[in-house]
Amino acid sequence: xxxxxxxxxxxxxxxxxxxxxxxxxxxxxxxxxxxxxxxxxxxxxxxxxxxxxxxxxxxxxxxxxxxxxxxxxxxxxxxxxxxxxxxxxxxxxxxxxxxxxxxxxxxxxxxxxxxxxxxxxxxxxxxxxxxxxxxxxxxxxxxxxxxxxxxxxxxxxxxxxxxxxxxxxxxxxxxxxxxxxxxxxxxxxxxxxxxxxxxxxxxxxxxxxxxxxxxxxxxxxxxxxxxxxxxxxxxxxxxxxxxxxxxxxxxxxxxxxxxxxxxxxxxxxxxxxxxxxxxxxxxxxxxxxxxxxxxxxxxxxxxxxxxxxxxxxxxxxxxxxxxxxxxxxxxxxxxxxxxxxxxxxxxxxxxxxxxxxxxxxxxxxxxxxx
Length: 370
Prior knowledge:
By secondary structure, the protein is mostly helical. It has helices spanning 10-25, 31-48, 54-57, 69-85, 93-98, 121-133, 139-158, 185-193, 200-215, 219-223, 253-270, 291-304, 312-325, 330-337, 342-345, 347-351, 353-363, and strands spanning 230-231, 236-240, 246-250.
């Protein structure tokens, strides 16, 4: 990655560069995903290789200053103290983190790590504690960072850079899966009707809402949609999903009508000769819409009908749930949403259990027999 610099030892930075390139080239991860890994691994390097010279540690991975002298000292203290207290004490994830709250830190310094083969399980546990105390990370954020570190060490073993994986016995907290929020059909109808269709941006917003709900698109897929990927005759959208994978999504009814009207009556008024683009959805300067604008539009639309903090993904969840309730096959929904694993789609079966029971009681001949 071009944003890396030589502030940390090359034996540490080079494998990180290789891993980020692997994510980009071989895994086809999105820019946002790679940036998230880059941020988390910068924290990891910061902990493993503390440097008293702030200037030498600037821009280690992303161009941001990495840490101050005091935090470097804290990292060394945490490493020693955590080795003493955390030999095998990660039975309950959050409880283990809380154990560190009243720890008294030792001033004895530790040599910085210069090779990933030197990292032990104790270092990983100490890193976890450092995130909690020095960085004040929440348990969910710590899990995210540790997940990135686990993936990185698995990559190192696979590439032959290390013979052992110090994260192999580190268990992330198993949190119960939260069922996604879903709107009712009536709420979805009200959401569409509240859009002001007398202005170019109003027509755009109505089309956005209809496509998010009618086609189950992710917000990134919506803003990345180009005009040449809209097929009115075939009733389909060619979208680019996670991992740069293309898929064809059915496109008809209210979503198609709203899109056609926006392209005919709304978009021409938003186009700028200074910023010509193939993007379907444009802002008032004629440029491709950002994800943040989509968030704002959806949130405001929700507020207009009395729903606070409505998220674009809720429309995607609502699309899948309503299709399942309408009798659609789970595999069809999986393909439409672009889920690589059917288990991701199966979350919607839990949402509609009440619907299934109601249908059973209504239709089975022996459901009411005593």
